[in-house]
TrEMBL record:
<dbReference type="Pfam" id="PF00067">
    <property type="entry name" value="p450"/>
</dbReference>
<dbReference type="GO" id="GO:0020037">
    <property type="term" value="F:heme binding"/>
</dbReference>
<dbReference type="InterPro" id="IPR036396">
    <property type="entry name" value="Cyt_P450_sf"/>
</dbReference>
<dbReference type="GO" id="GO:0005506">
    <property type="term" value="F:iron ion binding"/>
</dbReference>
<dbReference type="GO" id="GO:0004497">
    <property type="term" value="F:monooxygenase activity"/>
</dbReference>
<keyword id="KW-0560">Oxidoreductase</keyword>
<dbReference type="InterPro" id="IPR017972">
    <property type="entry name" value="Cyt_P450_CS"/>
</dbReference>
<keyword id="KW-0479">Metal-binding</keyword>
<dbReference type="GO" id="GO:0016705">
    <property type="term" value="F:oxidoreductase activity, acting on paired donors, with incorporation or reduction of molecular oxygen"/>
</dbReference>
<keyword id="KW-0408">Iron</keyword>
<comment type="similarity">
    <text>Belongs to the cytochrome P450 family.</text>
</comment>
<keyword id="KW-0503">Monooxygenase</keyword>
<protein>
    <submittedName>
        <fullName>Cytochrome</fullName>
    </submittedName>
</protein>
<dbReference type="InterPro" id="IPR001128">
    <property type="entry name" value="Cyt_P450"/>
</dbReference>
<keyword id="KW-0349">Heme</keyword>
<dbReference type="InterPro" id="IPR002397">
    <property type="entry name" value="Cyt_P450_B"/>
</dbReference>
Amino acid sequence: MTTSEHIDLMSAQSRVTAYATYADLRAQSPISRVRMPTGQDVWMVTGYDECVDILGDYTRFKTTPTVLPEGVEMPALPEAVVRLLGGAMGSIDPPEHTRQRRLVQSAFTPAFVEGMRPGVRAIAEALVDELLAEPVREVDLVERFAVPLPQTVMSRMLGIPEADRDRFRLWADLLLSLDPTSAQSAPQGMSPEQVMAEIEQFVGYLEALVAAKRADPGDDLVSGMATAEADGERMTDDELLKMVALLVVGGLGTTQHLIGNMFFALFTHPDQLALLRERPELVDQAVEEVLRFHGSIEISFPRFAAEDVVIAGTPVSRGEMVIAVLAAADRDPARFPDPDTLDVTRTRNRHLAFGRGAHMCLGAPLARVEGQEALAVLLRRLPELRPAVDLSEVTWRPGLTLRGVAELPVAY
């Protein structure tokens, strides 16, 4: 067991060495006591089997604390943040979580997501058209493709007017900046008061959006969730508001990072990129392998021990915080042979990039569609796509919540 290790887990440089750090921790024990940047000691779980057990056990591990260790207090949140994220589906346990997820999934069905595929492909094609129209064929793939693709998809899915899409991106970034493990800061020059004013505007915008979809439903997801019914129940306005906020926050950054990470991984493994160009039928497998190799979600939502438990021989006291490190689990050699090698032909690949259990990422099917279409379109339309800088110069976004390259200059 590692006790209160002072490990750099937040800086951009730590993203480069994170897998080695996790491997060192896992070599000592699948569970380690680590001090977070907030000063709080938490249990970090780096073993695959142990992560699976924790993520699927809602008896011993809760998403909300039943009791906190002595001297530990949960921080108070501003009212606007509570309206958006407090008691959202990602932070509640069954059976209430089960009820809300059932209602959402009755609208956000596999058929609904698959029906979006042609639209996702068309958006990707249009973005490539813009790239090919550039007089100088060198751009940042993150800003010019990985960001606008999910932003446009999400806006259309939720029925957001095109004029409001940039604002939605700002609001998502601001909410993420409130997460102490994200290391994402508000845009330069914004004071805390300005940040909260923007978030309050987001609350007002979503309240108006929900009311409009209730009154005049369309074929978008918000309308579908507003009218969805299961066992005679519907989502309340407050639940619907939180769900839209969760989709916006979770659906933009994660897919952006999936696309950026995907091409960074392929550029650093040119043999795998060449294989994909020869065998485009491997695209779906390649997306799964990148999700395992450089997943965009680094850690799970925190869990709290509901009772005294033992994990991998280590006692954990009731109320203590436990974090499943998804990125570490997906590099566990006990589960994945040669885990530090990118292999787009890998078939036994039940990774944890989207989590596991009842809280598995709701948007996983859509992220997969976006990743698959992005990869297929870029490989087909830009056969000369290549990095425009030495890949050692590419930096990662700081923080522990999400993993993603900050920018990826490419030539084509």
